[in-house]
Design brief:
This protein is of the alpha+beta class. 51% of the residues lie in helices and 12% in strands.
């Protein structure tokens, strides 16, 4: 059972929003964000690297959810063979989402 948990920890990253919501994202998708990559690949420099959890104190859940959706979207349409659909963003969250994307370097 412990081996299953260890494998799961290697496959997923937990992104935790400022209001405590946890988002389990495949690690290969999360590593598309340069900030997350730096935190997870920095050998021993960040505690996040050991736990595969990252707490974002400045990103609320409604923004973190859209970030996670975008990470999946980006992975799905990385090498498109057909037309890529538009990634819809509600105007009322556009500025917050832009700031989060800038911070995460996505």
């Amino acid at each position: 059972m412990a081996a299953d948990n260890s494998k799961r920890e290697q496959e997923f990253v937990v992104l935790i929003s400022s209001d405590g919501f946890e988002y389990y994202v495949p690690k290969k998708y999360a590593l598309e964000a340069e900030t997350i990559r730096s935190m997870l690949d920095g050998a021993g420099q960040f505690v996040e690297n050991e736990r595969n959890e990252i707490v974002f104190r400045d990103i609320p859940s409604h923004i973190m959810e859209r970030v996670c959706v975008f990470l999946h979207y980006r992975a799905r349409y990385h090498n498109p063979t057909s037309e890529v659909p538009e990634f819809a963003i509600q105007p009322e969250i556009a500025l917050e989402l832009l700031m989060a994307a800038n911070f995460l370097d996505v």
